From TrEMBL:
The lineage of its organism: Bacteria, Pseudomonadati, Pseudomonadota, Gammaproteobacteria, Oceanospirillales. The keyword Transferase applies. CDD domains: AAT_like. It comes from Marinomonas maritima. Residues 41-379 form the Aminotransferase class I/classII large domain. GO terms for molecular function: transaminase activity. InterPro entries: Aminotransferase_I/II_large (IPR004839), Class-I_PLP-dep_aminotransf (IPR050859), PyrdxlP-dep_Trfase (IPR015424), PyrdxlP-dep_Trfase_major (IPR015421), PyrdxlP-dep_Trfase_small (IPR015422). Keywords: Aminotransferase, Pyridoxal phosphate, Transferase. This is PLP-dependent aminotransferase family protein. Its cofactor is pyridoxal 5'-phosphate. PANTHER family: AMINOTRANSFERASE, KYNURENINE_ALPHA-AMINOADIPATE AMINOTRANSFERASE, MITOCHONDRIAL. Gene3D superfamilies: Aspartate Aminotransferase, domain 1, Type I PLP-dependent aspartate aminotransferase-like (Major domain).
Amino acid sequence: MDISHLLTSHAINMQASLVRELLHYSQQPDILSLAGGLPDEKLMPAYPALAQLTDSRQYGASEGEKGLREVIVRLVADRGLHTTLDNILVTNGSQQGLDIISRLTLDESSTILTEQPTYLAACQVFKLQGANIQGVPSDSEGMSVLALRNAIENTNPKAVYLIPNFQNPTGHCYSLKRRQDIAALLDEKGILLIEDDPYRDLCYEKVDLTPITTLLKRAPWLYMGSFSKVLWPGLRTGYVVSCAEFSPHLVKIKQAIDLHTNRLGQNMIAAFVASEMFPAHIVKLQQSYKEKRDAMSKALVAELGEMVEFNTPAGGMFFWLTLPDGVSSKHIMTDALEENVLVLPGIPFFPNRHSQDDAFLRLSFARLSLEEMQRAIHILSNVIRRRMT
Ligand SMILES: Cc1ncc(COP(=O)(O)O)c(C=O)c1O
């Protein structure tokens, strides 16, 4: 049956996410997956006991559970972002935060500027609104300020979307100077900042994590956080903190989409984050993921040496690997899969594609055990070597 006449033009133009398509392989037991952004379930704590939670059986507030919003106010205050309950919206993961923000601010006439490369599922959401996405070159300290100025002047964008801490996919973390310069430029031009910060607690070195939002003096902003990377992604719980002008509009969209986020999950997260277990849990995550990051870095150097380029990320879950000249990431993906190793080509992370974007792989070190990771990198390095000859 042909249903294409029933679909909107934006739905027809949507491409399936390569990550989602690859995820079904990662669920097969014999596959060693370096592909997804999935946290290690062995590091996830048990749920709090049901009896100690607020009763969640009735419909709730569209803004989210009061107890969880109070917890979020305290969490973001520790980051220098001082706000009130009215400016917190609990969402079904930060992915829904992106959706709500996009529905509120973007349409066919809008351009949104992003890092190049950037989180591909954010681009999918922006595209669903029909927005034009313009990637802005970024280096290891973040988005280039000069390139951002040029892009703002050339495209008159609605917003700039940034992931300043342990970016997905590159792992980059912005320097304080870059954060300050970008804030000053957005203030000068009065451009909306959409700041996405799901990885900040997965921090393994002393680096600056100041939200750019807190450096703004007059530009509008929306800041997103998530509990997916530190607690239970299956509970789909994240949040948007907004400057006061946006808050009532965000709630109306949330109400129209799904009334509110699942109350039971919100109350579980509120109970855990408010308990003394939370800080200890974050320290445990940092120690375990740091060990895995170091093991991946060591394995890459031992197996591939000078053949590939990468920076060891100061936090997050990802290595961003530049392959040897002439080696295609798509070929590496197919060859590696034949040997039961799943890797993710970098191409879908580039909003504006060029042929040289086939030269990257994103490798996640979060989920495999140390021994599995060694094995996966060994197989991957043989695959890369074979393609070089
Ligand atoms: C940069 C970024 N933003 C948002 C998300 C979505 O996270 P959530 O599980 O909170 O929806 C992810 C998930 O990988 C991400 O990497």
